[in-house]
UniProtKB/TrEMBL annotation:
Organism classification: Bacteria, Pseudomonadati, Pseudomonadota, Alphaproteobacteria, Sphingomonadales
Keywords: Hydrolase, Periplasm, Protease, Repeat, Serine protease, Signal, Stress response
Gene3D superfamilies: 2.30.42.10, 2.40.10.120
Listed name of the protein: Probable periplasmic serine endoprotease DegP-like
Record organism: Altererythrobacter epoxidivorans
GO molecular function: serine-type endopeptidase activity
Length: 508
């Protein structure tokens, strides 16, 4: 089952849609089935009006759509009273050590080659918000046969993953099509496994092309459809009437978690190149400028005499990033990237992400009412984890979810969740850029650290008099303290506007 995002108060179940495909049989690789002949297809789908039926098209395509089940190992607390005031009263020290449990997830996918390569969503095999270790992937074919599969490559930024079925058998498959030719009102068919029910077919139309949902990111650019899409459809294909995959079903807007006719699919033109790179084992490099941006509102556009639905406003510029080196400043409005207009459908993040790092590009912008052009050398986009850590850190806000940094031993022993202190976070916390330490992102209210007053936004400078610059540094000192039989650690803490101080924190 898929995770849920919350956008505009609506639950957003992850469900990406893919690329255009033509189905081939499980005969020799490359053999085209007779049913895919254009003359046959013309009889299946009339040229004018609504289709008489989707049955023949479904019969051709469904054999290449699979169910994907995964098994993961998740670390959890062994103390049944964890998270309650009784955690330290019952169970003893052994119960404080983490244990593991199994979890499963279900999703859909489609085969793109006769030798068994499968495309799906990254979140199907790597559920977000969990500290899970993937242990097993099982592919179930429409006829019920099951195969083990291995993960070939995954990309969190685009939410795509490529698997390989462990079999020498030749499989029916589909291929990516040209999603740029899709138009609002075009018929589409979604095939997948909603709620684990097995092969399910739904139909609808393209509601919008290149829909920006406002969730941000370089790939917030989807095909919107009213074809019924639900949990379990994640990673399944969205087909056009020629049997091409034009989207990979990925997300829905819904107040209830079920389909209300607003579904989103990753366009094939975005997915296909990424899939090929993952399949080839290549590193995916994306461009990056190092700016925090927001859309240009109507009021801002009117005040500057700009067209509406054009440009993005620069809120902040990353120090020593590509944008700063090019002379871009906070308050600028970027209107063109490398000759392409910045719009709601073609955002700055999307345009830059698709430019090779190291490329020199012209950037047109407005500054204080004047048009300017600067030249930037595009940088390399950090990983999703690095980007998360670079986001502005609000010490008064509670984190939406546990940090992704692997600080499990620190959290278990001291009740602290910590993340690296980046330049951006240092500025937000009011300390110098060269400060070295770890930032506390959350404190267990039942731990001694909370009783001693530690809080989100505090910076740990040292532990047992040893400087702490990374998680590995902290974990090494922690392991040494445990080896020596110590029951507490001496932390040096820096809080905004206050001098650094030492605090002994009892371990548990």
């Amino acid at each position: 089952m898929k995770p849920v995002r919350y956008v505009y108060g609506l639950s957003t179940a992850l469900l990406l849609g893919g690329a255009t495909v033509s189905l081939v049989t499980g005969q020799p690789a490359g053999a085209q089935v007779a049913q895919n002949d254009q003359s046959q297809m013309a009889r299946v789908v009339p040229q004018q009006g609504a289709p008489e039926s989707f049955a023949d098209l479904t019969a051709q395509l469904q054999p290449a759509v699979v169910n994907i089940a995964t098994r993961q190992r998740i670390e959890v607390s062994a103390n049944p009273f964890a998270g309650t005031p009784f955690a330290d009263m019952f169970g003893g020290r052994n119960s404080r050590q983490p244990t593991t449990r199994e979890a499963q997830s279900l999703g859909s996918g489609f085969i793109i080659s006769a030798d068994g390569y499968v495309v799906t969503n990254n979140h199907v095999i790597n559920p977000p918000g969990t500290r899970a270790t993937l242990e097993e992937i099982t592919i179930t074919m429409p006829d019920g046969s099951e195969y083990a599969a291995e993960l070939i490559g995954a990309d969190a930024a685009s939410d795509l993953a490529v698997l390989k079925i462990e079999s020498s058998k030749a499989f029916p498959f589909v291929t990516f099509g040209d999603s740029s030719k899709a138009r609002p009102g075009d018929w589409v068919v979604a095939i997948g496994n909603p709620f684990g029910l097995g092969g399910t077919v739904t139909s609808g139309i393209v509601s919008a092309v290149y829909r920006n949902t406002g969730s941000g990111g370089a790939y917030d650019r989807y095909i919107q459809t009213d074809a019924s899409i639900n949990r379990g459809n994640s990673g399944g294909p969205l087909f056009d009437m020629q049997g091409n995959v034009i989207g990979i079903n990925n997300a829905i807007f819904s107040p209830s978690g079920g389909s209300v006719g607003i579904g989103f699919a990753i366009p094939a033109e975005i997915a296909a190149p990424i899939v090929e790179q993952l399949r080839a084992g290549e590193e995916i490099e994306r461009g990056f400028l190092g700016v925090s941006i927001q859309p240009v509102s109507d009021d801002l556009a009117d005040s500057l005499g700009l067209p509406t639905n054009r440009g993005e406003f620069v809120q902040s510029v990353q120090k020593d990033g590509a944008a700063e080196r090019a002379g871009i400043k906070a308050g600028d409005i970027v209107t063109k990237i490398n000759g392409k207009e910045v719009t709601n459908e073609q955002t700055l993040s999307f345009l830059v992400a698709n430019i090779k790092p190291g490329t020199r590009i012209p950037i047109e912008l407005y500054r204080e009412g004047e048009r300017r052009t600067v030249t930037a050398t595009v940088g390399k986009r950090p990983t999703e984890e690095e980007l998360r850590q670079q986001q502005m850190f609000d010490p008064d806000a509670e984190p939406e979810q546990a940090p992704q940094a692997d600080s499990g031993a620190i959290e278990e022993s001291l009740g602290l969740q910590v993340i690296p202190l980046t330049t951006e976070i240092a500025r937000q916390l009011g300390v110098s850029d060269d400060t070295s330490g770890l930032v506390i992102s959350a404190v267990d209210p039942n731990a001694d650290a909370a009783r001693k007053g530690l809080q989100r936004g505090d910076i740990i400078l040292s532990a047992n008099y040893k400087p702490i610059g990374t998680l590995a540094d902290f974990e090494a000192v922690l392991a040494e303290a445990k080896k020596e039989g110590r029951e507490a650690m001496l932390l040096r803490i820096q809080r905004r506007g206050q001098p650094a101080r030492y605090l002994p924190i009892r371990m548990r």
